[in-house]
Amino acid sequence: MPATPLAQPPNHRLLARVAAATLVLAAATPAAVAYAASPSASVSPTAVAPGGRVSLNVTGCGTKTGTASSGAFGDVRLTPGNLEATNLFGNATVFSNANSGAYTVTFECGGSGGQRVTVPLQVASGAARGGLGGSVGAMSPGQIALGGALAAGALGTGIWILRRRSRLT
After folding, report:
1. Which of 23, 63, 92, 110 has the lowest tally of Cβ within 10 angstroms?
2. What is the 3-state secondary structure (H, E, C) of 140-155?
3. For the chain, percent helix, then strand, then coil, each to nearest 5?
4. Is the full-model pTM beyond 0.70?
């Protein structure tokens, strides 16, 4: 019967070095990837009426300062959304006399000369919605009447139950 080689005990020093190198590489990779990638930005909503407000957000800057600018609302300073400054955000009000049409919003990371990204913004004709924010405009009169009837029925039932209890005691 041929001799079988004996299993070698694991080299603990080698395993510890490989584990340490892997840990260092894993810890450095997200930071390198975050700053190597170009930033991405968004404007919400993407279509707004003159006088309306938009939310501005940019991620991947790697800085704690930034600006957003557009012919629709001017310059806005962006602030960090968290301690790591992985995203910057702000709000802007579209000029009330802005002409309807397409505008670009330019996000700039850090000071002048920083990374830039642009996104579109559509200014629609008409005034900004106020009051209920359009929550009633999308409902039909029948739906509004049904909701009112259900609310009145619930109120009436509550009063009837309370009066009935007071008679029993």
Report:
1. 23
2. CHHHHHHHHHHHHHHH
3. 30, 30, 40
4. no
Tens of each residue's pLDDT in the chain, 169 residues = 555 555 555 555 644 554 454 444 445 444 444 444 688 899 999 999 999 999 999 988 888 888 999 999 999 999 887 776 678 899 999 999 999 999 999 999 886 778 899 999 999 886 555 555 455 556 677 778 888 888 888 888 878 888 877 666 6
Residue 74 CB contacts under 8 Å (≥ 6 apart), including other chains: 92, 95
Distance between CA atoms of residues 134 and 116, nearest Å: 34
Kindly give the pairing relationship between strand 116-123 and strand 101-109. Answer: antiparallel
Tell me the two tokens of residue 105: 């919003």
Task: Give the integer Cα–Cα distance in Å for 17 and 60.
Answer: 32
